[in-house]
Amino acid sequence: MLAESYSMNPGDELLVGFKFTLNPGWHTYWENPGDAGEGASIKWNLPNDIVASKILWPGPERIPVEPLMTFGYEDEVVLLTKISTSAASAIPLNLNAQVSWYTCKEICIPQEAEVSIPIKLGSKTPSVSKGLLEHTLGKVPVEFNGTYRVNKLDDSYVLQGEFEKMDQYDSMYFFPKEYGLTNYTENQQYEKNIDTFSLQIMASEVTIEKESFKGVIAVNKNEDVNFIEIDYPLATKEASQEFNILTLIVFAFLGGLILNIMPCVFPILTIKILRFVEQSRDSTYKTLQQGLLFSLGVVISFLTIAALLIALKSGGESIGWGYQLQSPVVVSLLFYLFVILGFIFMSNIVLGSNLARLSSISLNKSDSLESFLTGVLAVIVASPCTAPFMGSAIGFALLQPSFYSILIFLGLGIGFSLPYLILSAKPSLLSFLPKPGQWMETFKQFMAFPMWASALWLLWVLSSQVGDQEVIQVLLGALLITTGLWLIEKNNSEKNWVKWLMRLPFLLLFIFSLWLIPASYSDLDESKQDQLTYTPQLLDDLREENSLVFLNFTADWCITCKVNEAVALKTTKVSKLLADKNITYMEADWTRKDPIISSTLEQYGRTGLPLYLLFPSKGDPLILPEILTEDILLSYLNEVQ
Amino acid sequence: MKKFLITVLIIFAQASFAFIEIDSKAPNFELTDTYGNEVSLESFKGKKVVLEWTNHGCPFVAKHYKTKNMQSTQELAKSEDVVWLSIISSAPGTQGYVTKEEANELTTTREASPAHVLLDPTGKAGILYSAKTTPHMYVINEEGVLKYQGAIDDAGGRGFMFKDLLEANNYVKIAIKELNQGKNISNPVTKPYGCSVKYAG
Question: In CATH, what number is assigned to the domain containing residue B42?
Answer without folding.
Answer: 3.40.30.10
